[in-house]
Amino acid sequence: MFGLFKKKREPRPIFQPLGTDMHCHLIPCVDDGSKCVEESVDCLNTLKAVGYDKVIITPHFQHPRFQNDEDDIRRRYEELKKQAADAGVEIEFSGIGGEYRIDTGFQARLDNPRFLQVGGKYVLVEFSLHQQMMGCDEMIFDMQMKGYEVILAHPERYPYLNINGSRIEQLKNQGVYFQTNALSLGGFYGDEAKKRAYQMIERGWVEFMGTDTHNTMYSQALIDLSHDRKVEKLLEKYEFMNKTL
Fold first, then answer.
1. Under a CB-based contact definition with an 8 Å cutoff, are residues 38 and 29 in contact?
2. CA 168 to chain centre
3. Rounded to whole angstroms, how far apart are CA atoms 40 and 85?
4. Which tens digit of pLDDT belongs to each residue from 199-230?
5. What is residue 8's predicted lDDT score, i.e. its pLDDT?
6. Is 227 in contact with 9 (CB distance < 8 Å)?
7. In a 3-state reduction of DSSP, which class is residue 93?
8. Which residues pair with residue 101 across a beta bridge?
9. Cα distances (angstroms) measured from residue 118 to each of 44, 112, 133
10. Which of 178, 207, 209, 238 has its CA 20 to 30 A from that of 150?
11. pLDDT tens, 142-158?
């Protein structure tokens, strides 16, 4: 009964050391992220409140689920940027990228690349959460040969990437950057993902941190995480590359 009167937590700006959130899904109605402008505005305001100054938005590109087109995404991004300004959102829009799933449609995309690049330099890719597709290594290598810097989104969420296994070290040795999700550190994706995230950071394998915010449920989880002293100390100590974006 007393839980009904629990005081709502206020956001704390612990993510100031990062500066830029470089992974979120806040263009409405293009993937499994925000469903309307109002939800995007609410999430953007939360990002500002927990300490971010800038945001790079990264919608999904996934075959056949999210058949997004880069030109259409650019147009929708500019619309959201204007709508957010009209709503008084204070966070700076610092560009648009994409989260590209390495799947059965990725080779065709690689043959005619139009990648939306994070910070104008990096291509953010993701694997299936269940099993890695055959040929991933070759496609990542092909990207690198074409001059792209590759960031792997949330490696802690792939249970088949064992922290002590050779596969994950191979990716690091191949020059792949790692981006962990902030919410992984709070157990949002489960205890195992949380454990792997901390282990990767402790080994110095993580270059970027993103929120991967999809909707207001993620925003509330970020507010809760902003009260986590362990995460706050980690952000003060560990040098992520977000500030370079």
1. no
2. 19
3. 12
4. 999 999 999 999 999 999 999 999 999 999 99
5. 79
6. yes
7. strand
8. 126
9. 18, 18, 24
10. 238
11. 999 999 999 999 999 99
Distance between first and last Cα of the chain: 47
**Tokens 């043959």, residue?**
111
Tokens in use for 62? 């996934």
Low-confidence ranges of the chain (pLDDT < 70): 1-7
pTM of this prediction?
0.94
What CATH number does the domain located at 16-244 have?
A: 3.20.20.140
Closest Cα partner for 49 from 235, 227, 230, 241?
Answer: 227
Does residue 1 sit in helix, strand or coil? Answer: coil
Residue 101, SS3 per DSSP = strand
Q: What is the largest CA-CA distance in the chain?
A: 61
Dihedral pair phi/psi, residue 6, rounded to 5°: -65, 130
What the block records as the tokens of 105 is 């449609």
